[in-house]
Amino acid sequence: MARLDPRPAIIAVDNGSTDASASLLAKALDEGLVSECRQGRAQDGFGDAVRAVESGLDESVTWLWLLHDDVEPRPDALAELLRQGEGCDIVVPKLLEPRRRNHANRIGELGQTIAGSGARVLDVETGDVDQHQLASGEVLGGSTAGLLVSRDAWRELGGTSPELPLFRDGLDLGWRAHEAGLRVVTCPAAGIHHRWAGRTGQREAALAPRPDRTDRLLGMRTVAAHSQHPTLTSLRLALTAVVFALGHLLGKAPGRSLDELAAAWELLTTRSLTAALHRRVAYTTSRADTTHLRPPRGRMLRLRADQFASWVSDRVLPEREADTSIDELTTDRVDGRRARRSLLVPVAMTLVLLAALVAGRRLFGFGTLTGPALAPAPATLSGALDAWLRTPDGQLANAPWLGLGALGSLVGLGRPGWFVLLAQLLAVPVAMLAGTALWHRLLPPRTTAARLLLSLVWGLSLPLLGVTGSGSPGGALLGVALPLAAAAWLDWVRRDEDDAAVEKLRAPARYALWSTLAAVALPALLLPLWGFALAGAMRRGSLHVPGLAVAVFGPLLALAPWLVGLVRTPSRLLTGPDPLLAARAVHASTPWGNTPWWLFSVGAALLWLAGCWALVVDPRTRRLALAGAALTAWVLGLVLPRLALPLHGGTVRADASGWLLLAALVLLALCPAALNPSALNPGRLLRRATGILLALLAAGQLGWWLGAAGAPVHRTRTELPASVVAVEQSNRATRTLLVDAGSIPARWSLHARDLPRWGSAEGDQVPDPALRQQAQALAAAMASGTAGEDLADGARALGIGHLWLRGGDDGLVSAVSDTPGLGPAEAREGATTWTVTGLVTRTPDREWAGPRRGWPAGLGILALLVLAVLAAPTTAAAEGPRRAAAQPGRRSNR
Description:
Among the domains are: 1-197, Spore Coat Polysaccharide Biosynthesis Protein SpsA, Chain A; 430-715, no CATH class; 719-764 and 768-846, no CATH class. The strands form 7 sheets. Strands 3, 4, 5, 6, 9 and 10 form a 6-stranded mixed beta sheet that branches. The chain is α+β, with helices and mostly antiparallel strands. A hairpin with a 6-residue loop joins strand 17 (735-740) and strand 18 (747-751). 44% of the residues are buried. It contains 34 helices and 21 strands. It comes from Luteococcus japonicus LSP_Lj1. This is Glycosyl transferase, family 2. Keywords: Membrane, Transferase, Transmembrane, Transmembrane helix. InterPro entries: Glycosyltransf_2, Nucleotide-diphossugar_trans. GO terms for molecular function: transferase activity.
């Protein structure tokens, strides 16, 4: 301060400090450094101190220079501010980060603006080296640290607002100055080093015991007061704060999350202060538009989108070298390999997306998207939620995959059918994208081609194993969950023992999260996944007990209500979603779905040859154990579907796709050892055999996927006559009994406006045993041609308004047509429909749907949120200047 040129009259105000500040000020007063020293109160804000001084100044004083106790102005800072202040009313200096020895000065801020959420927005990149590259310009406001204010402007505006005693007071002052027709500009030539001691918590302040909370509160209050409707804006800001609180909670920063909630609550409970600030703002006659000084709408959203895109890029694109080598700086030759490697992934993903459109050409059109393992989606989001919350008979909760479908419908703008289309269309590309997370951990940099090859083979394993052909929701989910679980398992195995306890739980929590989703697709997979969890918890003879507990009990807690109900139906542990429907797509001789046996055999042979050859290249014990696990899963995938399992009065077969996908993933995880170019040398070129085998496999898979030969998933309209559908959709809401007499034994089901749909094959369509026996007896009578006079009466009692028969000869059709109580037969596309005469209706006592239970869904969502919080990166705490020293007992408001 003594080196300032010109030297101002310096008046210091001590707002109730409790450390050695008073003695330092007394010494400065004796040495003439400070012109005057005044005492304030700890509860006074910065603006209160300035007003107390300003009121007693001589009229000859025309400028006020506001300084904090943690600033270090350059000697020429005041001169530059005064020079810039000609014709202006408020001048904002350039604030620099604290000095660091042997380091260049770095810019902290040059003025401020504010987002609609109340967040502080800077017009410069914080941390940029100060090269005097900035130019002066208009700004909404700035920090009061070093702010130069003309005395006339101070009086006209009434100084800073008492409602903003600490933070955002300078921003509000500049904002009101603009609206009063005054000029607020920046002065980049005036440099002031600032420690931001108040915001970073280095200075204890009576008005801000928690600086983050106070800063958020005053930021939201500023936005609300400057709006046309402060109350409505405060409500919007409070909701925004709740969202931010959830984000901080995911980042394992509960303190900051509580600060957000406390700030929102205080904003709503101190509406009188917001109203007073609003009146102060409205008092100034607005003669200037400040819209151009505010960040444009959506800027923060675009910023978050850019950050998310950068996060995805860092995990999908190959590692790029950030620095340029000395060889590249001293040579005229241009190495295009790096550029080609960086373009390979985006080009490949674009081609895969185009291929997905070609392979999914049959998914577009009119009608309902269905498949052997895909039931029709509900028409609305409320229907999807109802399917999730309705509990089958004897169960505590419905299958969790229905919840994923209901929540995923939000991606389809609330239309479950659109979400199904996206899920079926993007199953292979998304599985490839998930696979990159695993291959990035198994292969070193500069192996982009190898990573793409493995990702391609993994994604195309879905059509090879019949997942995309049957439309299985569980198989598509496993294509994403399994590789991400494997990536988390690798992070767990490679953990750093020196990490904090919370950080050590990140990888187990991610593993538990993806294991939960895998178990949703196939519950029996929990057993091998728990086996891998035990292996991951063991390292160098020590057991990571907290991580093992998270990996085991996390899925159990999330799926507990559903798993407990499966005790009565253990066969469901071996099946995928909608097992009664999917059973039609699973055959004992071809558990791989609609894929031709010869194509499956060739693909399996290439996959096993590649994995075994990679095992020969690197036959370590752990890799041999993985090969054994792959063989076990493969055998289970081929053997279990041969078993006929009783379930809900019918017969189902185990789902093979989950076991086969697990085996395929383990085999592919063995291949990187033979695809690593750093391990190749002229004496061991035979290692390239693995890459050749995988390339052949990928070529065959790609041809099968693009050809979509025999793909049963398609758009279809109902086979029932329009008159039947109209009655089902009316207030009568009748049912239709469907009988397929051509199958052995004859199959039957019920059709209604809410059947079939997601989850209808998760339990008995007729939960009551007596009613189910009646419906089965009606179906048997129709299929055998022995329908008696009571057929129509039995149908009316069950709310069945129409009978539909397929696969019967002329004699069977005539026998049913002669039954009393049935209308004329209507033949259509190989099936015959009869109308049950009389006024048939489905009254409330004939609604067979189970009760709605919301608590299992809430428990599952809560458990997943807990796992997501543990798995998320820890929010970085605000850092203070490196040279800042703690001063115990210090208490001051700037």
